[in-house]
């Protein structure tokens, strides 16, 4: 009987230890996943800033195309371009904020990994949508200002200084070159270089979040 009592006590202790280990692992997992959410906060605030930036471009664009409509074509076109760009920047930020909101500490680790990967892809696409147009977009307000000044001076709205046309041409060449390089980079045989470039463009918050998730996966696998 004493041996049976000892076996039962041992089994009870073993079950308690297993429950305790399971609970501690669950707490550690949730703590790590909550930490990933905190790591993504700079990205969250950055998207809010980008959304405000896009809203500013929408307001600027509306102002320019309303003034330029039927009066000066360069100002009207500049306003439309700025308006469309602002909307695109707001949409890109909204998509990223949606991805950030989907990171939940109660989710399985594998699901969190999939969501981080989708967020990373969305971030890279967002960066291209918002960043690449700046090769030429920075010239657009200058074109609008030059058109207004030409009209105030009694000239034509199409009297744009040559240096602005050269800036626009240079930006167009830079944009085209960037797209060609991106296409070349993602051709077969350059996967390692493409991964390094994508990792660099992914942003610090996403890289740290992925590192935390990798650490959690290694711990759970041990």
Overview of this protein structure:
The chain has helices at 2-39, 41-68, 73-101, 109-131, 134-137, 139-152, 162-185, 191-201, 204-221. It starts with a helix and ends with a helix. The radius of gyration is 27 Å and the shape is elongated. 85% of the residues lie in helices and 0% in strands. It is built from 9 helices and no strands. The mean pLDDT is 79.
| Biggest β-sheet strands, sense, barrel | none
Mean pLDDT: 79
Uncertain runs: none
Percent helix, as a range, is: over 70%
Strand content range: under 5%
Order of helices and strands: HHHHHHHHH
**Protein structure class:** mainly alpha
Shape descriptor reads elongated
Helix segment count? 9
Instruction: Please tally the β strands and state the result.
Output: 0
* Computed Rg: 27 Å
Q: What's the N-to-C terminus distance?
A: 38 Å
Main attributes of the structure:
222 residues; mainly alpha; 9 helices; 0% strand; elongated
In short:
With 222 residues, the protein is an all-alpha fold.
Helices, strands, pairings?
Layout: H1 2-39, H2 41-68, H3 73-101, H4 109-131, H5 134-137, H6 139-152, H7 162-185, H8 191-201, H9 204-221
Helix pairs in contact: 1-9, 2-3, 3-4, 3-6, 4-9
């Amino acid at each position: 009987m004493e041996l049976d009592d000892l076996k039962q006590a041992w089994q009870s202790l073993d079950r308690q230890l297993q429950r305790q280990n399971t609970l501690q692992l669950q707490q550690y997992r949730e703590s790590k996943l909550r930490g990933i959410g905190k790591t993504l906060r700079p990205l969250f605030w950055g998207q809010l800033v980008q959304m405000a930036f896009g809203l500013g471009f929408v307001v600027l664009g509306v102002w320019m195309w309303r003034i330029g409509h039927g009066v000066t074509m360069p100002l009207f076109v500049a306003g439309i371009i700025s308006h469309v760009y602002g909307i695109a920047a707001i949409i890109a930020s909204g998509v990223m904020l949606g991805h950030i909101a989907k990171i939940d500490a109660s989710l399985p680790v594998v699901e969190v990994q999939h969501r981080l990967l989708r967020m990373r892809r969305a971030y890279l696409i967002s960066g291209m949508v918002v960043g690449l147009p700046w090769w030429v977009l920075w010239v657009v307000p200058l074109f609008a200002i030059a058109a207004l000044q030409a009209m105030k001076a009694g000239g034509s709205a199409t009297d744009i200084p040559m240096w602005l046309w050269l800036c626009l041409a240079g930006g167009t060449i830079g944009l085209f070159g960037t797209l060609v390089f991106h296409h070349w980079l993602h051709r077969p045989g350059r996967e390692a270089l493409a991964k390094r470039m994508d990792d660099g463009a992914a942003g610090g918050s996403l890289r740290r979040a992925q590192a935390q998730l990798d650490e959690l996966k290694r711990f759970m696998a041990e």
